[in-house]
Amino acid sequence: MSLVEVKNVTVRMGGNTILSDVDFHIDAGEIVTIVGPNGSGKSTLLKTIVGALRPSGGQVLRSPGLRIGYVPQRLHIDPTLPLTVGRFLNLPRSVPAPAAQLALDEAGAGDLSDRQMADLSGGQFQRVMLARALLNKPQLLILDEATQGLDQPGSAAFYRQIEQVRQELGCAVLMVSHELHVVMAASDRVMCLNGHVCCQGAPEQVASAPEYRALFGSGTQGALALYRHEHNHTHDENCAHDHAPPHEAAE
Length: 251
Known about the structure:
By secondary structure, the protein is of the alpha/beta class. The protein contains 9 helices and 9 strands.
């Protein structure tokens, strides 16, 4: 059984239809990325999956007792508030110190427990947020544009940490991102969303789909092929653009 199965989900807010007849699933251990333009309903879908929003139609089925870790798109903390990382991990309920330290270690933030949240860099802040999401040993880790605001090296380091987390915990990862060339290469499956499911499947299939190219152009296809070539992945010999320079597709 899938960890989460979304069946014909429609979400309406304020008289507007944000999502229409969305079908989607994620299985144990896989990395699935949702891409789409701004306002396409990506964050709405994640909030519906975790239960923060109730669908207007359709249903979301979760495996019994499913443990979900969630890293939101952004979290504002008053910079004048004296709050250490360790204390932050103990809100809203106390966490045993060894468990908190283990989560920090797993997130690559093992030395930050005594640091003030206000003093963290963007990358450190996101790793602490990741640690918070790992406290309950999630079977499904959900990331809503978790690298937003990070520079390219910071984003790359964060994605490497996510892959390490998946290997260590065996959890599935569902993420939303605008960094198309990175997530397309790192994902098992990709879903392109624009209020409805435009296309979904293996990264190569989605990158070649007319619906995807209509939204993002064809730049990611070349970047994806180059990434796989440089990392010694086997790929279709017909990819004549293996050595095309990687670049961001237009958002």
